[in-house]
Amino acid sequence: MPGNRGNGRLRSAEWFERRDLDGFLHRSWLKSTGVTDEAFRGRPVIGICNSWSELVNCNVHLRGLAESVKRGVFQAGGFPVEFPVLSLGESLMKPTTMLYRNLMAMDVEESIRSYPLDGVVLLTGCDKTNPASIMGAASADIPSIVVTGGPMLNGHWRGVEIGSCSDCWHYHEELRAGRISEADWVEIENSMSRSNGHCMTMGTASTMASMVESLGVSLPGNAAIPAVDAQRYRLAQLSGRRIVEMVREDLVLSRILTRKAFENAIKANAAIGGSTNSVVHLLAIAGRIGVELELEDWDKLGSQLPCLLDLQPSGRFLMEDFYYAGGLPAVLREISSVLNKDALTVNGKTMGENIANAPCWNRAVIKEFADPFKANAGIAILRGNLAPDGAVIKPSAATPKLLKHRGKAVVFETIEEFKAKIDDPNLDIDENSIMVLKGCGPKGYPGMAEVGNMALPPKILKKGITDMVRISDARMSGTAYGTVVLHVAPEAAAGGPLALVRTGDVIELDVPARKLHLDVSDEELAKRRAAWVAPEPPKRGYYKLYVEHVQQADKGADLDFLVGGSGTTVTRDSH
Fold first, then answer.
1. Longest dimension (CA), the chain
2. In which band, very low, low, confident or very high, does the pLDDT at 7 lie, cut at 50, 70 and 90?
3. Cα–Cα distance for residue pair 567/97, rounded to 1 Å
4. Is residue 348 domain-shared with residue 432, that is, in the same domain?
């Protein structure tokens, strides 16, 4: 039977087939779990890499999915072994899960490399568990397939469907403006999240599940199946069967995660109105697998494509509706004319074969390519003296009239300063101002938190105004919306021009021209730079390691020493 790398020998045989003391120990200790030689010797050993945690509501059901994967692995003649990795959850983890994405990726990579695994099923859910798992598996370059946890059921409040967390932002603004009561707010809190699963809007979790499918590293249809639907458990079982076949075919990630696959993902992101977070995650994954991908590719490949999906935060519907309408295969079929249909996927078929007959059951949710929900809706990349290495904006979630805007900056040096001042009725700000937040990039927070969609001042909200231009080196949740410029690079903490902006400076935003300009002379900026003092770095631990080695947003915010891969070779024995 073929094994990893097509050499006729399973990787796990290096542990279990040898006749020396190490082989004795490996087999003997595994047998202490109650299995016999026949269970694992000569069979593909499949790791089930599980990001399950009771601290992560999006992933709390993954233990059940693991059991379904195991059934599939056994059916196909493999031996499944489940192992835990660091679990990252947006709802409870501080200061930000993005700080730990790279740490989880290290956990996944080293677990795969150090154990006798021939293939791996990656069980993911909340935002960063998805890219982190793929980054780790890509660096090991082992046969891998992803099963995401799926979105939760639609929320319901007083006869209206509500989505996490797009409606969190919306109703929080309503509360701050005095248009709903505290009692209403508590009712919404109790009505929004109705089941296991990740956010049911096109937030980052749903976006990255869609990126996984459009990259070809999950079975078709994976992205939109609700977490509690039996079909997700059937898909998990099928994925368990398929990973055994992938090992026999030596179908490693580098054969799937090609340049063509990343191009498909960028185009799919535009068509679904996906999160800006996909930019940093796809860049990081590409860096691990050795694919040349640049920030400008989002503009070249996706910015002129239409958004076909009428789904929050850009539209009305939610992921459950998306699933019933046909899910991502229906969207990919609509944009098939611009896709690389010959890109290989984990089921052994091409993308074109997978989507050739994908039906759409609801045109209110998934529009036709010729009659889109929004035109030219892909992520735009901005440059200028304020962002020499780039910044991103999501036009489909912005107010059209603000896409060209000049205004005076109101600067917040830290997120704490913003929170302390934003509700002050004496804050010198109006709807024409541009809100600027510093110190929230990869080094500055640290970890590049989702705070870029700054809440508007109550005195502005009370005028009925719901959007202003906001600029930062932060990210924002994929569930958020507004005219928000993000990922400004270099960030303020790295000494980028953003660090030099002062309240009262005039800033010009021109999205059609891809321009972000600070109207301050080079001479004045030089004076400010001479007076700028870098923030004090962390003293110890992972914070220190992260800040010393994290790349900027335009490179994917990976740790510089993790770019690329080390394969699966273990050079020394343990005894």
1. 78
2. low
3. 26
4. no
Domain boundary among 141, 171, 192: 192
Share of the chain above pLDDT 70, in %: 99
User: Are 388 and 306 in a shared domain?
Assistant: no
Same domain, 455 and 514: yes
Instruction: Of 182-196, 343-357, 428-442, give the lowest mean pLDDT range.
Output: 182-196
- In 10 A of CB 465, how many CB atoms? 15
Q: Which distant-in-sequence residues (6+ apart) come within 8 Å of 328 by Cβ?
A: 210, 213, 214, 221, 223, 224, 268, 272
Residues 432 and 290 in one domain: no
Residues 220 and 104 placed together within one structural domain of the fold: yes
Question: How confident is the prediction for the chain on average, in pLDDT?
Answer: 94
The answer for residues whose C-beta is within 8 angstroms of residue 355's C-beta and 6 or more apart is: 220, 329, 332, 333, 336, 341
Per-residue pLDDT of 355-394, as tens digits, reads 999 999 999 999 999 999 999 888 999 999 999 999 999 9
Q: Can you tell me whether residue 202 is helix, strand or coil?
A: coil
Token reading at 552: 């900027």
Q: For residue 291, what pLDDT is reported?
A: 98
The alpha carbon dihedral of 236, 240, 241, 246 has a sign of positive
Give the mean model confidence (pLDDT) for residues 467-491: 94
Query: Computed over its alpha carbons, how large is the radius of gyration of the chain?
Result: 24
CATH of the domain at 63: 3.40.50.2300
Domain assignment present for 371 = no
Residues 25 and 71 in one domain: yes
pLDDT, one tens digit per residue, over 279-295 is: 999 999 999 999 999 99
Task: Give the pairing type, strands 434-437 and 404-412.
Answer: parallel
Q: What is the pLDDT of residues 395-425, one digit of tens each?
A: 888 999 999 999 999 999 999 999 999 999 9
Q: How far apart are CA 223 and CA 197, in angstroms?
A: 12
pLDDT at 447: 96
The first and second tokens of residue 354, run together, are: 């997978």
User: Is the pLDDT assigned to residue 122 strictly greater than 50?
Assistant: yes
Percent of the chain with pLDDT over 90: 85
Looking at the structure of the chain, the number of domains it has is 3
Q: What count of other Cβ atoms lies within 10 Å of the Cβ of residue 115? A: 16
Q: What is the span of the domain harbouring residue 351? A: 4-154+194-355
Q: For the whole prediction, is pTM greater than 0.70?
A: yes
Say if residue 2's pLDDT is above 50.
no
Domain assignment present for 366 = no
Same domain (yes/no): 433, 317: no
Task: Tell me the pairing of strands 380-384 and 387-393.
Answer: antiparallel
Q: What amino acid is encoded at 436 in this protein?
A: V
| Residue 426, in any domain of the structure | yes
390 in a structural domain: yes
Instruction: Output the 3-class SS for 355-418.
Output: HCCCCCCCCCCECECCECCECCCCCEEEEECCEEEEEEECHHHCCHHHCEEEEEEEEECCHHHH
Beta sheet of 469-472, edge-to-edge order: 387-393, 380-384, 515-518, 506-510, 404-412, 434-437, 469-472, 484-485
Contacts of 160 (CB under 8 A, 6+ apart): none
Q: Are residues 103 and 179 in the same domain?
A: no
